[in-house]
Amino acid sequence: MAEDTSKPDTSTKRLDFKKQTLDDAYSVPANLLEIEVCNPETHGFARNRYTDYEIKMNTNIPVFKIKETSVRRRYRDFEWLKKELERDSKIVVPPLPGKALGRQLPFRGDEGLFDDEFIENRKKGLEEFINKVAGHPLAQNERCLHMFLQEPIIDKNYVPGKVRSTN
Q1: What is the H or E stretch that residue 37 is in?
Q2: Distance (Å, whole) CA 79 – CA 100
Q3: pLDDT digits over 1-54, tens only?
Q4: Which terminus of the chain is more solvent-facing, meaning fewer CB atoms within 10 Å of its CB: N or C?
Q5: Beta-ladder partners of 60
Q6: Cα 160 vs. chain centroid, distance in angstroms?
Q7: How far apart are CA 94 and CA 129, in angstroms?
Q8: Which of 150, 156, 135, 113 has its CA nearest to residue 34?
């Protein structure tokens, strides 16, 4: 029995697609989220000394009400965010860079927690952490993440919950 070959087979037909232009290729992505941890600053003296970092965010994701922000955060603020996300969200939260308890011991030959190389390594670890967390679609709806990235001061008495898109 011979097959009828007069009709073209539509099951193997290629999909029609729009050819990409240079403007399309180099335009802003549909879901842009850039977060940079930078400009570490050490404050205080002796036992009251601490380092904080600037957190710069640039996004076009609708759930974030402010598209460009810059806030300063300490390591303990990152610990707070991790704890809040573990408590209130359904995501697996990545680890933070270590506490470096050994660097807090007295009589070290370096600056301990305030050594430039340590601060730079911690900065990189914190940037990796916050980009993994903020890039997760479920975490993007958490009020604690929005407060961490967009509010100058973290209100630790806030009411946990979800943020709704304003778009």
Answers
A1: strand 33-43
A2: 14
A3: 555 556 666 667 766 777 767 766 666 566 789 999 999 998 888 778 888 999
A4: N
A5: none
A6: 19
A7: 7
A8: 135
